Amino acid sequence: MRSSRINRRACATSGLGRRFGCATSLVALAWASPSLAADAPDLADSAQQATTQTAPNPADPGVTTDTQSQPGPAGTYSDDPTQDIVITGLRGSLQRNLDIKRNSAGVVDVISAEDIGKFPDSNVAASLQRLPGVSIQRSGSRGEPTGITVRGFGGDFNTTLYDGRRISSATGGRQIDFSTVGVDFIGQLSVLKTPDVTLSSNSIGATVDIQFPKPFDRPGFRAAATASGSIQDRAGNVVPTVGLLVSNTWNDQFGVLANVIYTRRDTDTNRVYVSGWPGGNFAPCQLAGSTAATCAPTAATLDPSVPASNQRTIPGWFPQQYGAEQQRVDDERIDARIALQWQPTDGLMITLDDNYSRQEITSNNYAFGVWFNQTDLRNVSLDENGTAVDFTQVGTPTDFTSALNKQILETNQIGLNARYELSDSFSFDVDGAYAKSQLNPGDVIGSLNADIGYGGALGSNVRFTVDGDSSGAFPSLGNFGPAGNAANWANTALIGSHVTVNQTQRNTDELWQFRATGQWQQDNLTIRFGGQYYRDKFEFANFSTFVNNFWQAYAGYGAPSGRTTGIAPLPANLYSGSIGLNDFIPGFNGSLPPSVFVFSPVAYQQYLTSLGNPQTQNIPGFNYNEVRGLTGTFDQALDAGSIRDITEETWSLFLRVNFEADIAGMPFFFSAGVRNENTHITANGNGTVPIQILPSTADPTLLTVVLSDPQALQSRSNYNYLLPSLDARLEITPELLARFSASRTLTRPTLNLLYPQLNVGTGQRVGALSAAGGNPNLLPYLADNFDVALEWYYQRNSYLSVNAFLKNVSNFIVGGVTNQQINGVIDPTTGQPAVFAVTQQVNGPDATVRGVEIAWQNVFGDSGFGFQANATFVDTNRPYDSSDISQTGFAVTGLANSANFVGFYDKDGFQIRAALNWRDEYLLQFGQNQNTGSFGAEPTFVDQSFQVDLSSSYDFNENFSVFGEILNINNNQQSTHGRFSNQLLDVFDYGRRYTLGIRARY
């Protein structure tokens, strides 16, 4: 190939520092190059622009070195000018990362594998959080890192690519769940904090490119295998991870690489929750110390005939639902990949690859819950912020629930790339890919639920008390149990059937993409140009027993609760044990009832079905008043209003010019680019409106909303944006670099927000009517970004950098909640027009985000010891204002100071690494699980977190090693709260995880 004509002059004539840079860059090549055949990101126009046989010299960008040199012993240095130096292991990986960062046009951070099949972490997001400015979000139920936040922008603000290609995601958002990505055979992760206009449509947070190995990255036969077992301390059973990679090339013309990985994680997580803290107004008669003879709270505040003590005029917040549960989660994932490469002629490389993943998460949840209505609360004590910290509620029902939840996410992406070098100066490549992602394909039921308990005559005068902040306490319950008898809390003779909810979300996302890029290079000038096309088609549908009202078939709790509907007592063989709630969340204050039941929702529903067909026989306890059509089985029905079909097409043209020069003897690199994007959106859906609301005779807290027949709706919109960028790098001295970057980037609204209809759920609760509407005319977020950085590379494998950044963001999408009447339908519980809390997104305010990243990496000579440390400090002109109770409150989400420290020892085949990660409290989102209040979308804050992880490995020889890992040594717990710190929403205790395994390479 023409790319094999490389320049040897630098390593032949330079001193030790330059030779060291040449040699370490050779190793960097081995993992930087996997993406090149697929035209992955042009990170530096040196480190990533090189072809598969060249690599940059970090001391002299643009000069390449001889890739045929032989590596010396690990961790050694030589003064022999003819010998290149290669460092292996963790320190070698860190040096490769540093080389790429140094030579990049913009602000880039990289994590590369130490060797094939030896990535430094067991999860992609876990690796990324070691980088400056990057923090992670965890799944509360699993404790697994599932997403990242970069410089305060999380989720959909970050674009993730596979080898430079976008990935389809049937979850409805644009971000991916990083727990679905098998990490064992990844070659490199690149985080571009400033944009590359030739790569993608950019993102306000960062672009993450996950780069996989290909056959010609390392010609010849290669094989790697990994096997490990992991155990979570509460789950108590060892589960496996096994993987195999095989690669070979023939005659320098054809190559094949294939790998497959099976991963399982079992996690038992304890959770205490409040589903939401809606805001609303209390009546004076509800407050502690009231002497009012009667208390009948009413919204009529101007009616002189209503006593002042009954008028709801005092703002405050109350818990909608409170409970505790244990979640037993099995997470199984299969990742498979095959890559074929053909080099038919000199300068032409054709690559065909296919990436497949399937993740199945099965969760068995066992819980209790109590429901509160604001107007039913008495003896209410409000703190200085208006939070109800102490109250009682008469007749409170108690529910015990069991749920079998499944989520299957299956994704396959196939791509074809052709790269051709017509001459030493001109090359081009063409890349096309098709990807399809499905959520819950086939006949899987997403959530199969059983709800039993007692209420009515057995409802208790429950007392609810807030004992402290969410970071260290959960609320306490008092006077619980049937009719307040705590000794009968779990008396199965008094427990009857309640609601039966089955529901499944089924989504499909299909993504077509095509990119053509040309490059012309001569001397110190490089021009890249081309175009790109995306077509993303998203289909959404929901099925549930709410739609046909089967959920209320046996509601009511039965005779012990004084109800004519519901089955009680239930067969004793349905119960298979219990889970004690004493010391349920270690280290947290608060008191809970004694236990929850362990029982199977499948067996429960089978029992109810065995009672017979209520259409052909009379079944005592069946809810004949509200339920029609059920013949015995709890079949789901399609919610016609949930159907959404969104298609987004984007055409892009891009141009980037790079040149290198000297300024007063200092090497200077400059890059200027522009990208134009034109997007067309077609949104289809079915519109329905409520025509009647029916109360439930089985349970006075339940409502059924009758909807109109669906009407097809369609909306079209389009927008066009010009996105310029500029990057400059000045080498003040051989050790000190200065950078400046300026750009405009965008982040598109998620596809699941672009539907044209208003959705009103059929199954609702008294006092908690809600609806949600889409907005197909949403515009993308726009950001003008500025970076200024100084980087000091003061010795081998060591550097210190300071990077200041500023982002001016407009078109923020605000998910506001407004109270609205819909179609004049009457609320039977009030006799007045029903008021729904309607959630809808609109483009709104602007905001500025600013911050500083500090990073320090140091290796102590040849001792084997070293560390990485970084800290990020962020701020905004639009912080959250907890005193703002308007329905359109706004603040920037995701912003938090963070710090990471990794200390390591790596020498003579032994490696040990301790990672400490801290993140301050931050605003996660607007909206809670129950968000039906009068003060708009209530916030969700994530409390400060600190986690310590430990990993170690030992190489017996170059082919065989063992490794171990302990995650969450300090038993960090994840907690969230609402508007104020004592409004606990969730606390998850997911424990520690231990892993032990082996790796083999050939």
TrEMBL record:
Keywords: Cell outer membrane, Membrane, Receptor, Signal, TonB box, Transmembrane, Transmembrane beta strand, Transport. It is a multi-pass membrane protein. Residues 42-55 have a biased composition (Low complexity). Residues 479-969 form the TonB-dependent receptor-like beta-barrel domain. Residues 42-83 are annotated as: Disordered. SUPFAM superfamilies: Porins (SSF56935). Residues 101-206 form the TonB-dependent receptor plug domain. It is found in: Cell outer membrane. Residues 1-37 form the signal peptide. Its main location: membrane. PANTHER family: PLUG DOMAIN-CONTAINING PROTEIN (PTHR40980), TONB-DEPENDENT RECEPTOR-LIKE BETA-BARREL DOMAIN-CONTAINING PROTEIN (PTHR40980:SF3). Belongs to the TonB-dependent receptor family. This is TonB-dependent receptor.
